[in-house]
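S.,

Sequence below, as promised.
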Amino acid sequence: MTDEDAVLLYVGGPLDGRVEVREARHGAPLPVVTHTHLHDGPKVVHVYDLHPLTPAAGVYHLRAAEVAEVAADQSPAAR
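The prediction came back faster than expected:
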């Protein structure tokens, strides 16, 4: 890890508690991250929004209201 790398924490959803070190060579952290959970049931997409703490640290918070909406929009019944 270098001084330019970013440390990112995920809060909520299936990624809760995950810590990611994004190397500076990959650029700035993305403002929104999606995580697709595949299992025996329908596909569920979780959306996380970045809340920067410092230039080198941030927290991705689960966008809770969007979880059900995104999952419903992508289900076969919604098509």
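The CA atoms of residues 40 and 75 lie 13 Å apart.

Coffee later?
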